[in-house]
Amino acid sequence: MHKKNKHIKGYDFETLLKEFPKLEPFIFTNTHGTQTIDFANSEAVKTLNKALLKTHYNIDYWQFADAHLCPPIPGRVDYIHHLAALLKSYKFKNKIQALDIGTGATCIYPLLGFSEYNWSFVGTEVEQASLKNAQIIIDKNKLNANINLRLQKEKEHILSGVLQPKDAFMVSMCNPPFYKDEEEALEATQRKLKGLGNEGKQVVRNFSGTASELWFTGGEKAFLHSYLYESSLHKNNCFWFTSLVSNKALVKSMQKSLKKLGATEVKVINMQLGNKISRVVAWTFLTKEEQSKWFV
């Protein structure tokens, strides 16, 4: 985890219970004498996330339908911290404006980014129902001045159709759909359950998710390369474009494509959460002269 991640030493259940007593029924002591929860239990995971958001990020309301993905807070905030490190050396004229591509029903990245760094966000989403739920979360937490949402009406597009001519984001972020179709997503879910010792259980909540959250025609590779191409069409609207990349093998093809598209700089930022290794690919099309116009 990033050194600034509040969860780097694990969960302090005593502190969490003081702020969110509803977590208590889900806590137990395992065979190693450590307090924990059942991470295959969807209700337990969602309740833990609510406790973390209230205790560490001042988020009082966080509700969404069980059909949606329940994002792990430590991993999501780690992405935010790595982006903050990417931007740290720049003295921008204005407050950090971030673009969250596919903000989802939970609005998790804007909530964390605002809480940790006071960034302002625009979140985009292809599903009207998810957008509506995210807006309720924003309203309930009184964050309308800092988080705005836009509907992407054309599902085959990522940036085109939602970016506006005057947009000037310091950074974009994206957690792409990993799978090419529903079947592939269900197979991955079963593997996760098996890893948690729950093989044979019904595929449920903790690893659920709607179509737009889990799969994209052609899978992660197709999504990312569409994103790369569209970013080249809107190169002046964002200083650093970034994305999480699950499949390490895709990084080389992304670097090759970005070179052809005219990117002036590409960075690969490694992230590790426990045994899971992921990476953020960041790229910009701006020349040094063009970049200087963004600075004080």
Gist of the model:
With 296 residues, the chain is of the alpha/beta class. The protein has helices at residues 13-19, 42-57, 73-87, 108-117, 128-140, 182-195, 211-214, 219-233, 250-261, 288-292, and strands at 28-29, 35-36, 97-101, 120-125, 147-151, 169-174, 238-245, 265-273, 276-284. Helix 8 (219-233) packs parallel to helix 9.
Itemize the secondary structure elements and their pairings.
Elements: H1 13-19, E1 28-29, E2 35-36, H2 42-57, H3 73-87, E3 97-101, H4 108-117, E4 120-125, H5 128-140, E5 147-151, E6 169-174, H6 182-195, H7 211-214, H8 219-233, E7 238-245, H9 250-261, E8 265-273, E9 276-284, H10 288-292
Parallel strand pairs: 3-4, 3-6, 4-5, 6-7
Antiparallel strand pairs: 1-2, 7-9, 8-9
Overview of this protein structure:
- The chain is of the alpha/beta class.
- The chain is built from ten helices and nine strands.
- It has helices spanning 13-19, 42-57, 73-87, 108-117, 128-140, 182-195, 211-214, 219-233, 250-261, 288-292; strands at 28-29, 35-36, 97-101, 120-125, 147-151, 169-174, 238-245, 265-273, 276-284.
- The strands form two sheets. A seven-stranded mixed beta sheet has the order 5-4-3-6-7-9-8, with helices on both faces. A two-stranded antiparallel sheet has the order 1-2.
- Helix 1 packs across helix 2.
- The protein is globular, with a radius of gyration of 19 Å.
